Amino acid sequence: MPIIVNIPAPLRNLTKGEHKINANGSNIIEIINFMESNYEGVKKRICDDEGNVRPFVNIYLNGEDIRHLSDITTKVKIGDEISIVPAVAGGS
Asked: Is the pTM of this model over 0.85?
């Protein structure tokens, strides 16, 4: 059983319409790099030029914000589920 990554609608044009992908890696940045190697352009949408997750992108590992864990070095294991959630702005 691989690591499952839930892809938000704004990134699906890069993942050939897939809303879930199977990924390999031992931590979050390896998962992002895996995604980039299979879906060019994904990393630039998720990470800044220094390789950190952009402020308006939230990544959750099994429902927990990685910023409250070890950020991009957060360890992952087979069967984990990652959700990428772009921030939503709005209001009146």
From this structure: yes
